[in-house]
Amino acid sequence: DILALPLLGLVLEDEQVIVSTNRGEPLTLVSSNSPAARCYTNIARRIQGEDIPLIDPSNEGSGVRDKLKRLMQTKIF
């Protein structure tokens, strides 16, 4: 609001960001199901002119099923 610029998006907290950074691999190519990867992809699509709604962080991954799924997707090695 202060800069009078439209919000392109926000990136949700995700442990896959650290894992992909440590491996030197792009997050959006390695783990397309991670919340952060979806956010980066949505931001890129908005820059290209598509009308993509913002992800509501309060609804994202709050259930036990979502947390278990993220835990199982975490690649350590």
Task: Give a quick summary of the entry.
This protein has helices at residues 15-23, 27-30, 35-47, 64-73. By secondary structure, the chain is an all-alpha fold. The radius of gyration is 14 Å and the shape is globular.
Explain what this protein looks like in three dimensions:
This protein is mainly alpha-helical and 77 residues long. 47% of the residues lie in helices and 0% in strands. The chain starts with 14 loop residues before the first helix and ends with a helix.
Which descriptors would you attach to this protein?
4 helices, mainly alpha, globular, 77 residues
Write the layout of secondary structure elements.
Elements: H1 15-23, H2 27-30, H3 35-47, H4 64-73
Mean pLDDT: 81
> Any low-confidence stretches, pLDDT <50, length ≥5?
none
Instruction: Tell me what portion of residues adopts beta-strand conformation.
Output: under 5%
Structural class: mainly alpha
Helix content: 40-55%
The count of β-strands is: 0
Radius of gyration: 14 Å
Amino-to-carboxy terminus distance = 42 Å
Shape, principal axes of CA atoms: globular
